[in-house]
Amino acid sequence: MKALVVGGGIGGLAAAVAFHQHGWEVEVLERASEITEIGAGLSIQPNGLRALDTLGLGGLLRTGGQAGPPRGIRAADGAWLIRNDIEELERRFGRWAIIHRAALVDILRAALPATALRPGTTVRQVLPDGTIHYDGGTASADLVIGADGLHSVTRRSIWPQAAGPRYVGYTTWRLLTAPHVVEGSVEIWGRGERFGYLPMPDGRVYCYLMGNAPAGSRTGLDRLRDRFARWHDPVPALLDAARPDAVLQHDTYELPNLRTYVRGKIAILGDAAHAMAPNLGQGACQALEDAVTLAAAVHTLGVDAGLAEYDRLRRPRTQMIAQLSRRVGAPAHWTSPLVTALRDTTLPLLPSALFGRSVTPAYTWTL
Fold first, then answer.
1. Which end of the chain is more exposed for a tag (fewer CB within 10 A), N or C?
2. CATH superfamily for domain 2-68+96-165+255-329
3. Roughly how many angstroms between the first and final C-alpha of the chain, as a whole number?
4. CA geometry: angle at 272 spanning 120 and 16, to 5°?
5. Euclidean distance between CA atoms 132 and 140, whole angstroms
């Protein structure tokens, strides 16, 4: 049996590893000339680690980048809005891990034979019968897995009438700073903007910033430093510790719900199926869940029944996580002074267990 995977990111490589471990012949078709990953840090939450455990790879992350749960949310002046019981979160759900995106791609890539990787291959069309047209030729397989991201060629080929990605109203910057001491993982909310940071295992700090902005607008590091100059420590210091060439900016999109993730011999996963706002940090974790669930279902039930089971299991869950992510991030992007003041007054009055209850559906996943 053969699987063709369109896209060599985290979800596509994880799917290829899972099918390879089940004895399938796999090929990963990636349009970039090298299978790697740009970006900065990545938090792999307990459910994502369990997905990696099914591939025998979770221990590599736990050894090199184990981290604690998020400590909570602060206001721009430093006051705590939500303060998590991190010991209780860890007891309930397990550990988190922090890793550079490229390092996770390297781990997944190393679990595949070199002959399975075909960088520099641009797929132009995917057909329901498992045929792929790419620059330079045609290929076919028993199963095609579309893991080709937000602007998926696979999704557009198989569901040409489906709605495309929609801009959520804010842009996202990501960066790694020089080594800097921080107290753990924290997110800070202002009016229409926020700043989050996570310590990396090597002492550097992964920062992400989000701000309301028109799609396509671009802002450099100097302007970000000015924008966040009056926020509490360590925000200005972290921006001062960054280099301009280390800042990545991407507008934030989500994908409207699809009616199915499968058709014929085709399945889509990750952002190709359910791109979501990054407010829960679940994008990579959901792609990992998709990959191992798809492989297990097809291995157990065969292609046709396995694809149906994959869709039954994954579509409701991922669409629920996307909706939750959209909802929990919305208050950070309110701009009314009155409404944000009410938010900042109300949130500290809520029970400390609120975060744990809200993320339970995401973190308690098992295969």
1. C
2. FAD/NAD(P)-binding domain (3.50.50.60)
3. 23
4. 60
5. 6
